[in-house]
Amino acid sequence: MSDFYDISVTLADGTTTTMGGWAGHVLLIANPASTSAHADILAELFTDYAPRGFFALGTYDANDAGGADTPFPYLTHAEELFEYLGEGDTFVVDTSGSVIGRFDAAVEPDELEITDLIESNLPI
To answer: What percent of the chain shows pLDDT beyond 70?
Structure first.
């Protein structure tokens, strides 16, 4: 299996990139993030933590309208990423590319279990 930062993903606008674009940041990757409520939570977390080295990344099915009017990127065609991440719906990745948290859909991205993990790993 490849290094986390070598994994290829496609952004909502069709641009292909690697996870390396987010190297050095704490990442919250939410799958799926296509509901309005979920997107609002991710947007709030992104706004609050981005100045401290954080990125939220949402994913959605290519048939959904994800990625519209959000301050954070949406990914599609991220199968390789989720194969790497393993079981779960929401993931926290530290600044070195290690998965430090896996959560199922019952845990909202703004619950303390996740936000404490994010805050304790922010580089700034």
So the answer is: 89
- What is the per-residue DSSP string for 58-88? EE--TTS-TTTT-SS-EEES-HHHHHHH-S-
**Domains of the chain with CATH codes:** 4-121 (3.40.30.10)
Please state which of the ranges 41-55, 58-72, 73-87 shows the lowest mean pLDDT: 58-72
The H-assigned helical ranges of the chain are 36-49, 79-85, 112-121
pLDDT at res. 1: 44
CB atoms within 10 A of CB 12: 19
What local confidence, expressed as pLDDT, does residue 68 receive?
Answer: 59
Measured from the Cβ of residue 4, the count of other Cβ atoms closer than 10 Å reads 21
Over residues 54-58, the mean pLDDT reads 95
One-letter amino acid of 57? L
**Residues of 25-61 as b/e, b for ≥16 C-beta within 10 angstroms?**
bbbbbbbebbeeebbebbbebbeebeeeebbbbbbbe
